[in-house]
Amino acid sequence: MRDRFPYKLAAIDIDQTLVGRDKRIGVHNREAVERLRELGCRVILASGRRHDNMLPYVRELGLDGYVVSTQGAVVRHSNASHVLHEALLLAPEAAGLVTEGLRRDVTVMHWSRRGVVANENSRWVERYIEDCRDPVTIANLGGQASWSGPAEKIVWGADPRLIVPLAAMARERYCGRFEVTVTDEFFLEFTALEATKAAGVAAVARYHNVAPSEVLAFGDGNNDASMLAWAGMGIAMPHGKPAAKAAAKMTAPAGDVETSLARAVDALLQQADIEAADAVGAAA
């Protein structure tokens, strides 16, 4: 079956793709990942999360390779800490986005290798901590402090009704300077132009001499759209954002969010005329 499977690399988003609301890898999704590996496909995780925050999932799956973190701002090996790709916001750029966010009275979060620092303990910070189980340091972002310097990304948090006009303003104002992405409806994220999941996954593919046509990508969010479009086969989750579905070549069958990845792999194997494992098919 390996000879018939045309894909050598699979990039999988974490939140709402690999894991659902409970933030745990369900048995069906875990077996789907193993099925891909049995077919000779190297599996990597590609997330908006920080590198260190992704490692528990990497280790649970027994993966040993590069990790695409923070929207593709950093691609670092899970064990050796070797950086394959890095596209950071320079210190003056990060400072400017922090200052502008503070001026607009939104929650501002500065992401770096050292962790996440926010200007206040708002409900948006609490939501992030709850969703990602990642600590956040509260500090005066308006002053010169140890957090200052290049950033993996800058995040503005606000009521969704404010995020929509803020996103429109930011895309016009920062066009050609930054990637501007609405991830959760209450988060507006700024990264360097080369900090996309497509760029991060492409770096891993080049390292392993894998052509784009031999790459799979699975995701659900706006920040997944670039890699879903770039990959030879991008598969969106059925509950995915419109941008993700539009970028993908296939959408997984509808069903429980917790098993969407398993259904996506099942549908892919059926399309490739490869018998799917019973455990994967059972997730339908």
Question: What does this protein structure show overall?
Answer:
The protein is an alpha/beta fold and 284 residues long. The chain folds into 2 domains: 172 residues, HAD superfamily/HAD-like (Rossmann fold, 3-Layer(aba) Sandwich), CATH 3.40.50; 102 residues, Hypothetical Protein, Haloacid Dehalogenase-like Hydrolase, Chain: A, domain 2, CATH 3.30.1240.10. Helix content is 35%, strand content 21%. It is built from 10 helices and 14 strands. A 6-stranded mixed β-sheet has the order 8-7-6-9-11-10, sandwiched between helices. It has a 5-stranded parallel β-sheet with strand order 2-1-12-13-14. Helix 8 links the parallel strand 13 and strand 14. Helix 1 runs parallel beside helix 9. The C terminus is likely disordered.
Helix content: 25-40%
Q: How is the main sheet built?
A: 6 strands, mixed
CATH architecture of the largest domain: 3-Layer(aba) Sandwich
Total individual domains = 2
The CATH H-level homologous superfamily of the largest domain: HAD superfamily/HAD-like
Number of helical runs?
Answer: 10
List low-confidence stretches: 276-284
Following the backbone from N to C, one meets helices and strands in this order, namely EHEHEEEHEEHEEHEEHEHEHEHH
Provide the CATH top-level class of the largest domain.
Alpha Beta
CATH fold descriptor of the largest domain: Rossmann fold
Q: Work out the number of β strands.
A: 14
- Using only C-alpha atoms, the radius of gyration works out to 19 Å
Outline type: globular
Mean pLDDT: 93
Give the end-to-end Cα distance, rounded to a whole number of Å: 22 Å
- Amount of beta strand: 15-25%
